[in-house]
What we know:
Blueprint: H1 4-8, E1 23-25, E2 30-32, H2 34-43, E3 51-53, E4 76-78, E5 83-85, H3 87-91, E6 99-101, H4 102-157, H5 165-212, H6 216-220, H7 226-230, E7 243-248, E8 252-257, E9 260-265, H8 272-285, E10 289-295, E11 303-307, E12 311-315, E13 320-325, E14 330-335, E15 345-347, E16 353-357, E17 362-367, E18 370-375, E19 382-388, E20 394-400, E21 403-410, E22 413-418, E23 435-439, E24 445-449, E25 454-458, E26 464-468, E27 481-486, E28 492-496, E29 501-505, E30 511-515, E31 523-528, E32 534-538, E33 543-548
Antiparallel strand pairs: 1-2, 1-3, 4-5, 4-6, 7-8, 8-9, 10-33, 11-12, 12-13, 13-14, 15-16, 16-17, 17-18, 19-20, 20-21, 21-22, 23-24, 24-25, 25-26, 27-28, 28-29, 29-30, 31-32, 32-33
Helix pairs in contact: 4-5
Amino acid sequence: MATPTSWAQEVITCDLCPKPTQQFCNNCQISLCVDCVSKHVDKFKSQTHDIVHFTNRKIQPVFPDCKVHPNQRCEAHCQQCHVHVCLKCILSSHKSHSIVEMQEIFNEKKNYIEKENQEIEFIIIPKYKKKMDNIAGKISISTAKFDELEKEAEKHRKLWHQEVDNIFNKVSSMIESTKENFITSLKSHQSKFKNLIPDMMQTVEQNKEILKTNRVSDVNNYKSKLTEYRDIPADIDVKIPSMNTSTAQGRELNIELGEYKAKLTQTALSSLTDEVSYLSMKELLDKARVIATIPSGVKPLFQVACVGTDEVWAVGIDGVIRCVNIHGSLHESVTTTSHYSPNDICVTKQGELIYIDSDSKTVNIVRRRRSKVLITPPRGWAPERLCCTRAGDILVNVSSEYQNKILRYQGKILKQEIYIDEHRNLIFKEGNSVLNLAENNNGDICVSDCNADIVVVMDKTGRVRFRYDGTPARRKKKFDPRKIVTDSMSQIIVIDYNNACLHILDQDGQLLRCLDKCCLDKPIGLSVDSEGRLWVGLFGSGEIKVIQYME
């Protein structure tokens, strides 16, 4: 009667047929049944065959067949020609060449693979796992600290009068936005380790299989990934802003969060809100100064878009988009296929460059120095201006004859059209000029309508909140709004081309002040960097002014 152990015994079959093996060819390293011995020997007549009983087999390398001489095995390697050679090769075309035995190469390569595999399995993978654990800890700590910040903001909110709720709305928006960016960055960094570890573990298992094999070609075809794995991604430092407050009951209230500062001095209750929003901001904005003047190498200059803290993309009339740093050095350039300058450029939250191709009438994205079509607007509509939202959407101003629309895209999908109000009236004036776009922290869509010479601000549903015509600034020439941006404090900054200045509004359309003492000759491009500085491109000179307008 068969026992469970006997059932589990594995039957080794012939390598040439399904029958049980009984013999073994030591030279060819294959298992054979009695019937297949003669077939094997007849097939390779020119080779010697050491046929033994399977229990007497000898495990040794299987050398590859010669590609030049049939039925010959390559047991050597020509160092001069870098090819495997057989005995006939050595006596003919490779005569007098430097020859090394394949066995020697085989042994050296296996030793190398074994050492490399040990380093990946026992040193590098544990480092990756430790890094991933550290990131998880940072995420937990960061989330807890951000939650504490939010709780602290809510606690102090109760100490302030209702008239200054807008200040804490800005604080909460900044905390949420910063938290989202930090946690997203950390999770993205964590995913790099999470994705690489399975790949390394798979590599380890593949290497183990190679170490088990006696096939020389499998070993020699091995491609090392060790250098790639050794390059462990650097840590991300998370600097969480601190909140400082002071309260002198009945006299003064102060709050600071990162670069944002607000001070409330008690005055008549009827004007308390205006006093806070105007006086405290004016103290900061009076310190505006040009900290750098950068030659972009582009004349005339049309558009600029900041990347991080000290680099900016700039585009002129030649269709080349150049990236220069704050010192004026060219970092890289992208040559578009368009015969004309891109209509507009912007940068996504991930730092990718997006531009409007004026020839193909498409929105393109640049990845690995190559352009790819991202959005094709509806037929008959040409894209003119664009901006990226904090949620990852893309807002595109499109025009057809004398009409303008704003389209919201999620990826390639059109999600929203904005051009008429709740009374079915056109929001934007008809004309052949464009709409410059920006999104505010609260989701408002800020537009400079160059046909009507006004700034229109709508909520994210497209409902008009207010219009600003430049009158409060009392400039000499007619208000001529061009490029528009928003900053971390939800302020709206718009270029006034005719008056060579910048109008700075709060999120509700109240003029805070004009920046007009920074030598802005023909300002045309405008962008905000990650440190809250303004980068203003000048049309004629091609220079870019970097302006520090907040502490």
